[in-house]
Amino acid sequence: VQLQASGGGLVQAGGSLRLSCAASGRTFSRFIMGWFRQAPGKEREFVAAITGSGGSTYYADSVKGRFTISRDNAKNTVYLRMGSLKPEDTALYYCAARRSGYYTPHSYDYDYWGQGTLVTVSS
Asked: Using 50, 70 and 90 to split pLDDT, how confident is the model at 74?
């Protein structure tokens, strides 16, 4: 599986962005998909995840109520809608895919990674 993330950019605090992650392959719907982020000087952290069917979603407390993860299995794409952005949301955002069927927020449990897309939120 190859993942290609896009949609990052520079936005003012309070603004919004939508990230996309396009996946190759025919088994996209079997994968748990996650978004992670890494700010300069910090460890990579979990942001959100969604099950293969899209029926269940999970969020880090820091983004709950502001970010929404969704997927379109017909397009092999997962999205992260980010709203009410804050300067502390500035980071390189990665999408990731996990083969196994249950959710986990741990980056080491994910099997495939995209290249990252940079989100910068100015104050």
From this structure: very high
The pair phi, psi for residue 54, each rounded to 5°, is 85, 5
The string of DSSP codes covering 37-69 is EE-TTS--EEEEEE-TTS--EEE-TTTTTTEEE
What are the two backbone dihedrals, phi and then psi, of residue 7, each rounded to the nearest 5 degrees?
Answer: 105, -5
Per-residue confidence (pLDDT) for residue 102, from 0 to 100:
86
- The Cα 123–Cα 121 span in angstroms is 7
Q: How many residues does the chain have?
A: 123
Residue 75 pLDDT: 96
Q: Nearest CA to 119 among 70, 79, 86?
A: 86
